[in-house]
Amino acid sequence: MNRNELGKSLNLSVELIAKGRPNRSGRPILPTYITIHNTSNDGPGADAAAHSRFVRNKGYYEWNGKKRFVSWHYSVDDKQIIKHLPINEHAIHAGLGNGQSIAIEICMHKGIDQSSANSRAARLVAALMNDLGIARDKIVPHKHWTNKTCPVLLLPSFGTFIEDAESVLASLTASPTESLARDGVVSVEEFAILDQTQDAPVEAAPEDDPEDAHKQIANALAEFLATEGD
Fold first, then answer.
1. CA–CA gap between residue 170 and residue 92 (Å, rounded)
2. Cβ count near 142 (within 10 Å)
3. Cα 199 to the chain's mean position, in Å?
4. Which residues of 151-186 are buried (b: 16+ CB within 10 A; e: fewer)?
5. Parallel, antiparallel, or unpaired for β 74-76 and 81-83?
6. Strands of the 139-141 sheet, one edge to the other
7. 3-state secondary structure of 126
8. pLDDT per position as a tens digit, 108-156
9. pLDDT tens, 48-107?
């Protein structure tokens, strides 16, 4: 498989959070890690498209009477990947990982082919490793940053997930930049901007989120879907 074929296999589309939204600060980062999450949302319809609409049109849950804004770079299900932020921009997903990592949310809704979703996510990780030179030991679960039990489905076999990504990476036969701007994983513009963010500071520890933050997001998504179109 070459890099162009890998990109096509992802079925990736770009639906960015609008600039100026509270969950898109535009703060530059130099991503040296990839952080893997599960959505913890097993409800029907909680697929990548639903998460895309949620993060673009709402993008928060409420806790202790306050809005807690959230964002991530990619949503992945068994059929597609949707990109929500440039990979050189800060997302709100994993404490200290926010300023250092690309966030991938893997869906787990009722009726999903979970094996296919995990495989698609592993291929996305392989593409990012290839394009950005990110090493195996920098592919981490959400738990790495916060000690939370996430990704809840993948944690028991996280090493196997990384091995799957590495296997795809090892199979590639083309140069890292072959498909930039073709498949949307990393655009030419993002790649160029990364050269200008070498000194992006690592942020201080943000305010703690609740242990069940993903469940809070799942509930907020369910409420959003129930009222969508009202």
1. 31
2. 28
3. 23
4. bbbbeeebeebbebbbebbeebeeebebbbeebbbb
5. antiparallel
6. 12-14, 81-83, 74-76, 101-106, 33-38, 139-141
7. helix
8. 999 999 999 999 999 999 999 999 999 999 999 999 999 999 999 999 9
9. 999 999 999 999 999 888 999 999 999 999 999 999 999 999 999 999 999 999 999 999
Q: What is the SS3 assignment for 60?
A: strand
Residues 112, 106: Cα–Cα separation, whole Å: 11
Task: CATH number for 3-199: choose from 3.90.1140.10, 3.10.20.600, 3.30.70.3290, 3.40.80.10.
Answer: 3.40.80.10
Of 122, 137, 134, nearest to 171 by C-alpha is 122
pTM equals 0.93
The span from the CA of 120 to the CA of 27, in Å, is: 28
Peptide bond into 44 cis (omega under 30): no
In the chain, where the domains are located:
3-199
Tokens matching residue 47: 């697929």
pLDDT band at 196 (very low <50, low <70, confident <90, very high): low
